[in-house]
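Collaborator request, handled under Task 6.
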Amino acid sequence: MSRGSPQTNGICKRFHKTLLDEFYRIAFRKKIYHSIDELQADLDAWIADYNTNPPHQGRWCFGKTLMHTFLDSLPIAKEKSMAT
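Structure tokens returned to the collaborator:
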């Protein structure tokens, strides 16, 4: 998959929509941020939770968390990189 391909852009656009709907819209209703560092800390915590807590129904997740899916794919990725 090349950088900037329609498939890649779709994945990025979907994540941006999730980020907007599930983090930014909620965060800005609940709290007044006084610095970008405050916002970044809350965003970092949300991303950590998003990657490690809820199971996902994505194409390759099969009900696992995103982090578990990523860690499971590492041996396959290493194998592919050795083949090239």
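The cover message to the collaborator said: "The chain has one domain: 6-83. Residues 6-30 form the longest helix (25 residues). Please let us know whether this matches your experimental observations."
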